[in-house]
Design goal:
There is one protein chain. It contains four helices and no strands. With 128 residues, the protein is mostly helical. Among the domains are: 38 residues, no CATH class; 40 residues. Helix 1 packs across helix 4. The chain is elongated, with a radius of gyration of 27 Å. The model has no long low-confidence stretch (mean pLDDT 75).
């Protein structure tokens, strides 16, 4: 069942549009149509015990070179970079990451607006 704030928000939206409808009617219509609401937060996840300070060196990686100019990192990291970002500069890739974050926020806002519009549509289906 949706929380009270969602019913009241939809009810105020219907009243603002000039329609007269009771709060209980909004509740009933939302319950009948099973309109979802934002789920309630249930707190933090459980702590599963102590954590080690550092991960174990499972691969037994050797981080010191035997001789100069024997170990190279650039080729592999450059290939991974090009596979993901193409010929972008680092500043452009940073901006792309920021835009992706903004896009995710806008998608959440749009989904909430769709829910609100759907609830308003349900409110207008009231018999006069």
């Amino acid at each position: 069942m949706p929380p009270r704030w969602l019913w009241r928000r939809v009810w105020h939206g219907v009243l603002a549009l000039g329609e007269h409808c009771g709060l209980h009617r909004i509740k009933r219509l939302m319950r009948e149509r099973a309109l979802p609401a934002r789920p309630r937060r249930r707190g933090l996840p459980k702590d599963l015990g102590e954590r080690s300070a550092f991960a174990d060196n499972v691969l037994d990686s050797q981080f010191q070179a035997d001789a100069p100019s024997r170990n190279w990192v650039g080729r592999f990291s450059d290939a991974a970079w090009r596979a993901k970002f193409g010929s972008m500069q680092p500043s452009e890739a940073t901006r792309l990451h920021e835009i992706e974050g903004e896009n995710a926020k806008l998608k959440k806002i749009r989904a909430a607006a769709r829910l609100h519009i759907e609830a308003l549509k349900v409110g207008f289906e009231v018999k006069r």
